[in-house]
Amino acid sequence: MTVQLRVYVPPHPLIKHWLAVARDASTPSVLFRSAITELGRWLTYEAAREWLPTVETMVQSPLDSSPATLINPQVPVAVVPILRAGLGLLEGAQSLLPLASVYHLGLVRNEETLEPVCYLNKLPEKFHPETRVLITDPMLATGGSIMFAMSELVQRGVDPSLTRIVSVVAAPPALQKLSAEYPGLNIYTATIDEIVNDKGYIVPGLGDAGDRIFGT
Length: 216
Ligand code: PRP
Ligand code: URA
Fold this sequence. Notes:
6 helices, alpha/beta, allosteric enzyme, magnesium ion binding, binds uracil, magnesium, binds 1-O-pyrophosphono-5-O-phosphono-alpha-D-ribofuranose, GTP binding, 13 strands
């Protein structure tokens, strides 16, 4: 059986709505930030299906005992926001994954080469092999940043098939690179835009997501 990269674009009205708000160039920073937060929440909700580990148990209702399913607190869950723009998706993700550890990874693209430069790495030396990892980065453009992040995670014992990427706009160059290297990976994104221009921006995209989130 061949394992393939799976890219989900959930057909949800809330995701479409907040994507439209984020795309609009006239959306001010305060509203852009809210739109990205909401996208983080609803895309994480979708990504959590069949990914969050559960445990079967029994609960006693006021009337009788009943079989029940709970989130398994024994299995570690980690969120890895790729700074800066990935921070915008964090609040929504954390609202659904309150027990997750958060490991920050700071990457910035060199404006000429478009290669990522790492300026902060708070990843642990080793992850437990069962760890569920959710990476947040709103823009997957040339793929340089997400490939760097994946390589750092896999070196530390993360299983790509237990990893979910939450993004807002994904473009073919990034998806092709991820597919070639990490076929078991699952990506949740609000849209796939076909074009990356010669400056490395996704078209139509959202513009510079980090600048719009932080008003810089
Ligand atoms: C943006 C974005 C991604 C990256 C995607 O970060 O947040 O991390 O570009 O581009 P790529 O797929 O071509 O690597 P940027 O370097 O602009 O930093 P910022 O988040 O601090 O604005
Ligand atoms: N990073 C962004 O913020 N926007 C893009 O379109 C591409 C990379």
